[in-house]
Structure formats: structure tokens, C-alpha cells
Design a protein that fits this description.
The protein is mainly alpha-helical. 85% of the residues lie in helices and 0% in strands. It has six helices and no strands.
């Protein structure tokens, strides 16, 4: 009888764990918007945040649409390479990262042409803050993990 109950408990735990992992993977996916929808949402967000006029909104929409199209094309290429189990060489990785940085520089130059000086400085500060928050949050998470590894109350650590 104990064996049957033990097996049921183990089966329940395994099924719960598998179900939780599937839900976690589904939540990570997010919305699957078309490039036009992404561009529209990003343009409206910028219009609200930077008080863009109609001409600026149209120019930002065209830029964001082009970016979304390029991003979708790159994601498809990466997925195809992953399915084919193709690993990029160091030169190909360098070329990919170099092209990405060149596109970022071009996009920044286009944004600078579209926005006023005040809007551009605000955009630049917001970009730096967002990037900084990601790094800070990541750093805090890593530091927290390190602190947990060195817990002096840990009985495994005190056995030595």
C-alpha cells in the first residue's frame, strides 16, 4: 500500500513539474504581432512619450516598420539555422554583430533627423536608462545568487 501511495505522489509531482514548465514556456512567447502592428504600437508609444507631430509620427512609423521587417527576417534566418543545426563561424558572428551595430548607428542617425534636439536628447537618455536598468537588474540577480551560495548557516558548508 505504501508503495502505491509513494508512486502516486511521485507521478503527481512529475506531472505538476512538467505542466509548470510548459506554462512557463508559453508565457515567454508573448504576442505574435505583424511588423505593421509592432510599428504602429511603437510609433504611438513614442508619440505619447515625446509629443510627436503628424509628420514625425509618419517618419517614425516608416523607420519602425523597416526595423520590424528586418528583425522578422533575421529571426526567421536564425530559426532556420537552428533547425538545420548550423553553427555560425567566428567570422559570420563578427559580420552579424557588425551589421547589427551599423544598423543601430543608421537608426540613431535617422531618429536624430526626425526628432527635435530636445526630443532626441530625451530619447537618448531614455535609451541609456533602459539599458542600465537591464544591467542593474541582472547584476542584482547575480549578486543575490552569489550571496545565497555563501550562506554561513548552510549545513553542507559547515560540514568541512
Amino acid at each position: 500500500m505504501r508503495n502505491i501511495i509513494g508512486m502516486l505522489v511521485i507521478a503527481l509531482l512529475v506531472s505538476t513539474t512538467i505542466n509548470a514548465q510548459n506554462e512557463k514556456e508559453n508565457n515567454r512567447k508573448g504576442a505574435d504581432f505583424t511588423p505593421e502592428q509592432k510599428a504602429t504600437l511603437q510609433t504611438k508609444t513614442m508619440a505619447l512619450h515625446f509629443d510627436l507631430d503628424k509628420n514625425q509620427q509618419e517618419a517614425i512609423y516608416a523607420l519602425k516598420k523597416r526595423q520590424a521587417d528586418e528583425r522578422q527576417k533575421n529571426v526567421l534566418n536564425l530559426k532556420q539555422n537552428k533547425q538545420k543545426d548550423v553553427q555560425l563561424s567566428n567570422d559570420e558572428r563578427f559580420e552579424f554583430q557588425n551589421n547589427r551595430l551599423e544598423r543601430q548607428l543608421e537608426n540613431k542617425a535617422e531618429i536624430k533627423k526626425i526628432l527635435t534636439k530636445e526630443q532626441f536628447s530625451k530619447w537618448e537618455n531614455d535609451s541609456k536608462i533602459k539599458g542600465g536598468k537591464k544591467h542593474i537588474a541582472k547584476g542584482n540577480r547575480n549578486n543575490q545568487e552569489k550571496r545565497n551560495d555563501r550562506d554561513p548557516r548552510d549545513p553542507q558548508r559547515n560540514r568541512n
